[in-house]
Amino acid sequence: MSKNNVNKIIRALIVSDFFLFFSIGLLAPIFAVFILNNIANKIEVIGYAVAAYWAARVISVVPFSRLMDKMTGEMDEYFFMILGTMIVSSIPLFYIISSEPWHIYLLQIISGLANSLAVPAWRILFTHHVDKPIIGLEWSLEDVGVGVATAASAMIGAFVADRFGFNLLFVMYFICGLISVSILLSLGQIKKSIIKELFRRPGDKAPLKIDGIK
């Protein structure tokens, strides 16, 4: 493979992230509207919901990341990335049956914990397999993918929620999330054995950023 070509693992991670952020973008800009219209007509509930998510995430992300650091190889990150992404993708289905503010708070806490699994694991794998001659290009492709997915899904999500309601939007979120998970699972089919590719190289360190996106 040419040193200027994006390798297959990085391509899979970028495409998977595109679909994950597309699913998140369907709901994120109008989540407050859902809460006001369907859960409680109180602005404070929105603030508490956001706080619940971030409290769970910032408290758990360092312990989860340290656990990944201590485990040999990268199969742990691979597992946590898939598990966390699957949980994040499934949570909107439970919004359909939510009726009380505490339901939302609980789901937000679970979402924060799931992101604490998926986000650091994704970053570790991306960092370990990034092509050093084109590090800037590959990170910029990830950034472009996230931006395009978020912008497009924000428009689509608002349209769907306005015309057809939030329940359909939640199902769309779940389906797009499943596509993301399926792409991550396909890493096992890239070459004959992903295990040979997913071993930690000595001295590598993954960035740990606590922010809204990767």
Brief rundown of the structure:
The protein is mainly alpha-helical. The chain contains seven helices and no strands.
Present the secondary structure layout:
Layout: H1 8-27, H2 31-39, H3 43-70, H4 75-95, H5 101-129, H6 135-164, H7 166-185
Helix pairs in contact: 1-6, 1-7, 3-5, 4-5, 4-7, 6-7
Organism: Candidatus Falkowbacteria bacterium RIFCSPHIGHO2_02_FULL_42_9
InterPro entries: MFS, MFS_dom, MFS_trans_sf, Sugar_transport-like
Pfam families: MFS_1
Oligomer: single chain
Find the CATH superfamily: MFS general substrate transporter like domains
Number of strands: 0
Helix content: over 70%
Q: Provide mean pLDDT, rounded.
A: 89
How many strands, what sense, and barrel or not for the largest sheet?
A: none
Total domain count:
1
The CATH class is Mainly Alpha
Query: Judging from the principal axes of the Cα atoms, what is the shape?
Result: globular
CATH architecture classification name: Up-down Bundle
Radius of gyration: 18 Å
CATH topology: Growth Hormone, Chain: A
The helix/strand class is mainly alpha
Q: Strand-and-helix sequence, N→C?
A: HHHHHHH
In terms of DSSP E residues, the strand content is: under 5%
End-to-end gap: 27 Å
Q: What are the main properties of this structure?
A:
MFS_dom; 73% helix; transmembrane helix; globular; Sugar_transport-like; transmembrane; membrane; 214 residues; Growth Hormone, Chain: A; mainly alpha
